[in-house]
Amino acid sequence: MQTHGEPRSALLTRHVEVFRFDPDYERDHAQAYVVVELRDGGYIISEGRCRLVDFPPFESRGCSDLAIDLALVDAADKLALLRRGEYQPATKAEVDELRAKTQGWFVSGIPFDEFKT
Q1: What is the C-alpha radius of gyration for the chain, rounded to an integer number of angstroms?
Q2: Residue 58 to residue 111: CA distance in whole angstroms
């Protein structure tokens, strides 16, 4: 993959998928995965976790948001590694495995235009 000098947006599709697990009484943390499909094939899969705490501003909903934010930061770090040739993109099989693992979680798509690249 030729990436030197390309803007980051040239590597990405126009859609980012987010899988979010909101905390409940059985788990002590919120968890999120972000999947970014790459134009040349492959995916960036990133993860964010936040331990559930019960004081403002980090009540349970805040922890879910923070887990997503951490997963997005992880995705940005992996994108930087990819541009330097130091990250091996995930395969469709790995994304399908993640989708199976997170079945029943909240899933949303984020239009790429919301991100500054």
Answers
A1: 15
A2: 26
